[in-house]
Amino acid sequence: DWMLPALSGIEVCRQIRRCRPAVLAGPPSLLSSLMDNPAFSALDFSALDYCICGAEPFPEEARQGLERIIGPGKGMEVYGLTETCGLIAANPCRGRREPGSIGLPLTNTDIRLIAPATGKPSALGQPGEICVDGPQVMAGYHNRPKETRQSFDAAGYFHTGDMAVQDVHGYLRLVDRTMDMIRAGGFTVFSLKVEEVLCRHPAVHRAAAIGAADPEKPETMVVK
After folding, report:
1. Fewest CB atoms within 10 Å of the CB: 18, 23, 217, 224?
2. Alpha helix (H) residue ranges in 20-131
């Protein structure tokens, strides 16, 4: 295994060529910057079993672009937080992987999707905040009892602040951060979805969507 460090693209490509790793791991932003480097596309990835992607959402267009370089089916998206000491969900190393998802809850890990507006479990296919209980979840923030109380519910589940939907097979897909949801004209707009649509256009390299104050309607927002 070899974790992609914060090195120049040239050095990363040199190390991949020298070590021919079986596993790569890195955030989508780093992987996307490598994809912009012609030397990365020219590498031989036949020895690579999979590339672990995490730490931030991976736009579908960019994810497909990565697999065109490293090989189809080799991208393996995972999900975790500092507060969970690593991962709480991942696509299987061996077995069915669901492209564009963060996979399934890990062993002994219980994940609930809770609708922020109601505090109740979300219906199948409907977005909800990822709340998790498991042996890897922290006991609390050091010397910050208030923040700890705010982060855990009465059942002991840690609220991650990330929104996801779950399909009938249990695979989870991130849709946004709760703080990044945009309330525009009475609708809830997920910034990640807007970014994915923008990135499909050949003239768009990368995109970020935020909510900005609507000058005509101060009580609502516009997508910017």
Report:
1. 18
2. 28-35, 38-41, 60-70
Q: What is the pLDDT of residues 125-164, one digit of tens each?
A: 888 999 999 999 999 999 999 999 999 999 999 999 888 9
Q: Which two structure tokens, joined as six digits, stand for 99?
A: 């492209």
Q: What Rg do the C-alpha atoms of the chain give, in angstroms?
A: 19
Write the DSSP symbol of residue 58: -
Q: Is the dihedral of CA 45, 49, 50, 51 positive or negative?
A: negative
Confidence band for 1, pLDDT divided at 50, 70 and 90: very low
Burial of 186 (0-12, 13-18, 19+ CB in 10 A): exposed
Task: Please give the Cα distance from 135 to 142 (Å, whole number).
Answer: 18
The Cβ of residue 137 has, within 10 Å, a number of other Cβ atoms equal to 20
3-class DSSP state for residue 142? coil
Q: What is the pLDDT of residues 67-126, one digit of tens each?
A: 899 998 888 899 999 899 889 999 888 778 887 889 999 999 999 999 887 888 998 888
* Residue 188, strand partner residues: 183
Taken in order 102, 103, 105, 107, the sign of the CA dihedral is negative
Q: Are 43 and 13 in contact (CB under 8 A)?
A: yes
List the one residue out of 19, 51, 57 whose CA is nearest residue 35.
51
| Cβ neighbour number for residue 95 with a 10 Å cutoff | 8
